[in-house]
């Protein structure tokens, strides 16, 4: 357990001024996400040297990889939300138990989905249209999916640190993964001549070391605010249900993102072949890099909203949601402008060999159009994360389903095939659909917060009457 002073600093931060809490929580998360994206981009850059087929294979595996990462992040989101709500309600024993339940869930889920992914990978890739790239995809995918537990467990442990406001060590753990992966990639891919399989093994080894670091803090050094000793585990159906009410929708959201990527990849293959998938994969790496601040701010909103909801604090919930959106838009304007101005220079990072040089102009065009996606996302993602924080995971799922699986795919199809805009139409459709779906989510969140005002007031009146 931490010293009392440290406990109070962490807890007072997430229960105090929501603007300050969002800034303090989001910056380390941004650093963490930046590091993760850096090693994802490093994977793409190093693999790009193997040729367009290898890079396209990463593009086919990425949606499936997002699913397995989403398992850990989904369970982590459920734990983060529930632990934060218990902290807001000053019920620290149940907060401990919620963290332990999340770990148990991660073990069970990992075993089930490892089997599913390993047995179903070939037909899934065939349906996705992997074609000539399928062997590359299998070489990479079997290794990644075979060690699913590593990614799920890492996501849960990181979320537990975030739930109590300990962003510093959550960031350190992720930094270990990212830095190791960046170092090991060229060694495994080229020096050891392992090719695309080397990229997979570099990721596995790096993430394993990160888990060992977090496990040391939790179970050996034991200086977490929460006490995750096995003796504190007491099975409770309510905790399991409350965790899964956020975890399942959050995981399904990641599956939706993967389904979106699969459908977009299919459209790209139909419109221009597998080379278009390579172009889109490289471009979306940059878009995802620029989305890091939004994800960081959104993750902070999840914790702040959970604490505010648990404490029945209407003002903190309202202020936190609105401030996060304003902050997100400000950052996205800057990043979007950078993407447009330097699109050609960025494209060269993915076309530095003779095997991939022809991709540069197409990647630059894709980056310029998809830069608008960064502007279209803040109001939607902050609203979804707010709903996760207050335990309304289904609401967040509905927003994501509408935005990604329905509006983005429909508008991409319309713009590309019906309007005849070709590949730029797919990019523009993704942007426009994202903006429309995010707007619906934002309006829903504002309505929910307005209703919560009455609930919070009734709760306050009941406490006063009891005194």
Provide a descriptive summary of the structure in words.
It is found in: Cell membrane. The chain crosses the membrane at residues 21-42, 54-77, 98-120, 140-160, 172-192, 198-219, 255-280, 286-311, 323-343, 363-382, 394-420, 426-445. It holds the Pfam family MatE. It comes from Methanobrevibacter olleyae. This is MatE efflux family protein. Residues 1-6 and 460-467 have low confidence and may be disordered. The two termini are 34 Å apart. This protein has helices spanning 4-15, 18-48, 52-88, 92-128, 134-146, 148-163, 167-191, 196-221, 237-272, 274-290, 292-310, 314-341, 343-347, 360-376, 378-389, 393-418, 423-466. The chain has 467 residues and is an all-alpha fold. 86% of the residues lie in helices and 0% in strands. The chain has one domain. α3 packs parallel to α11. It is globular. It is built from 17 helices and no strands.
Average predicted confidence as pLDDT: 87
* Topology order in helix (H) and strand (E) letters: HHHHHHHHHHHHHHHHH
Proportion in β-strands: under 5%
Distance between the termini: 34 Å
Q: What's the β-strand tally?
A: 0
